[in-house]
Amino acid sequence: MANLDAQVRESQEQVSEAQARIAELTSRIETARTKIEAGEDATLDIENATLEEVHAHTEVMNANIAELIMGLDDVTAAFSRDFDEMRSKTGWESFVGIFSKARSDAMRQDRVRSASIDDKLQDLISKSDVIVKLLESQLATLEEHKVKVGDNLNETLDEREATVGELEDLRKQIKAMDPEIIQLENKIANETDAAKRTKLETELADMNARYNEMVQQEQVKLAKSQTLERYIEKGKTWVDSLQNQAATQMVLINKLQTDTKQRVVLYDALTKSLKTAQQQDIAHRINEIGVQTDQEAQTAMAGIGAATNQKMADMLEAHEDHMVFARDVLEQKAKADERFARRFQEIVEKHDKNLYGG
User: Fold this and answer.
1) Quick one: which H or E segment has residue 283?
2) Which of the chain's termini has less CB crowding within 10 Å, N or C?
3) CA angle 129, 135, 141 (to 5 degrees)
4) d(Cα 82, Cα 121) in Å, to the nearest integer?
5) What are phi and psi of 55, to 5 degrees?
6) Is 250 exposed, middle or buried (0-12, 13-18, 19+ CB in 10 A)?
7) What pLDDT, in 10s, does the model give residues 216-266?
């Protein structure tokens, strides 16, 4: 359990770092957007907003949390074995029973009482809750940044659409001016009157100035369109990444929450089984009471029988609902385990085959 505590602390640090990296990357994209609006060069900002480091860190973080979840499963399985051992006597208790059955039974009862079954269950649930809160915090961060970047992306898509429209309009105007310029140049070439020729040359100069200005505007609009396109590409990639990370967090949350339900059902069943074993021991001891106390034994048995019958009746009434609930939980766990295994197949394989460090 100490190792699990260390893993929980490590995961808390990794989640905190991941959130800082996500915030930084979103900030870079927002800064690029502000520069684009101001007409400044944003190429460097966009290129610096790389996803590789964020992805690498997130993968390590999720892998560690997945291993932590499997560690909780291992602890649960170990507790189940502990329960099974509690139902039977230890070698030493059996040896003591050769000389004193009462002493042997008392030792077993003391061991069961000191087992802190509920404490272990609560510790497991507490650790699960801590991890769920970590994952929910990460999920909230991912959703927040997904909305923020998505809003910027929609604005940029609208702006690029408008910019492309302006660019196409400029190109049409430029294309339309070409024959006008050629026609005017031909007129100048054929004009012999100096005054008229001068007037035509002034018109041509004005037209060429407008033409050059529009060509320059075309280059500006083209550069802006390309910048917006790169921004949109990075924004879409980041939104897709945030969406995929969010899906992973939801798989982990679902797995943990389902595991917690299953552990409660499991511990409830095991505790009842343990109590039943103790009740059977008591019944056996009553059966061994001597003939001289038969009457007292019969009275005690009658009381136990009446109480047992009532308890059995209550249990039978509740049994159907309990079994339906338990079956539902088991079905939910099977689905959660399947989704978890599919997303973390490599980690599950390493865990099952003890291939760490390989």
Assistant:
1) helix 194-287
2) C
3) 135
4) 13
5) -60, -45
6) middle
7) 999 988 988 888 888 888 888 888 888 888 888 888 888 888 888 877 777
